[in-house]
Amino acid sequence: MEEKLAVCLMSGGMDSTTLAYLARHQGYRIIGLHLNYGQRTENKELRCARRIADLVGAIEFIEISLDYLTRFGGSSLTDRSIAVEEYDPAREAMPNTYVPFRNANLLSIATSLAEARGASAIFIGAQAQDYSGYPDCRAAFIEAFQQVITLGTRDGSGIRLIAPFLDMKKADILRIGLTLGVPYQETWSCYKDSELACGRCGSCHFRTAAFAEVGIRDPIFYEGE
Asked: Which run of H or of E encompasses 160?
């Protein structure tokens, strides 16, 4: 039987960790790819991603620096002079945690790696249902990037871009992960802090809301606990 090999984007967060376990469940051998783009909690995210790569049995784990995104700025995740916004359900504008065109940068590197290794798939945990409509998390973007991959790689590469969580809520992703035995205590979601999760940023909000909806305790700790 031909080996199924996939590049999995691994941030160390809930969604990408569930994604890696799902890819393994579907029979793929995994190459873990972690991108450091200067985010505030990068050291914590990297430790989590490495741990998950070990637990999921990744055959390779690669970290790449995209620190040029800190030179561009335009996001509270990459520019320390911009405070990370707290979650506000009434906010209509794009949150300042959006990193301009980040996923295109990540997917370009993932495509190069997939083609070089002969992988047939790239898994990305993008999902827009809970968030604020980040433009590079929309289905139309993923579909368009598939065309970029098809046109920009050698004939016959057959690389598929797989984003199974696009239309799911975070609680739905969590339910999938629980059936797969995902160790959520090894993941990190907070945009702001690396020791205790702040509990107030958008990412913390959607994580805690998902665990509350499913009816189980989040295994990580938050400020004030």
From this structure: strand 160-162
Answer for the pair 12, 45: CB distance below 8 angstroms, yes or no.
yes
Which tens digit of pLDDT belongs to each residue from 178-195?
999 999 999 999 999 999
The boundaries of the domain holding residue 113 are 5-188
Cβ pair 46, 74 in contact under 8 A: no
pLDDT at 205 (0 to 100): 94
Domain assignment present for 225: no
d(C-alpha 214, C-alpha 216), whole Å:
6
Q: How many domains does the chain contain in total?
A: 1
Question: What's 37's domain CATH number?
Answer: 3.40.50.620
Q: Is residue 95 part of a domain?
A: yes
Please list, in sequence order, all residues whose beta carbon lies within 8 angstroms of the beta carbon of residue 210, skipping any fewer than 6 positions away: 14, 130, 169, 170, 171, 173, 174
Q: Say what the pTM is.
A: 0.96
Residue 1 pLDDT > 60, yes or no? no
Please identify which residue in the block is written with the tokens 């990297």.
Answer: 46
- pLDDT beyond 80 at 132: no
Residue 209 lies in a domain: no
- pLDDT of res. 91: 81
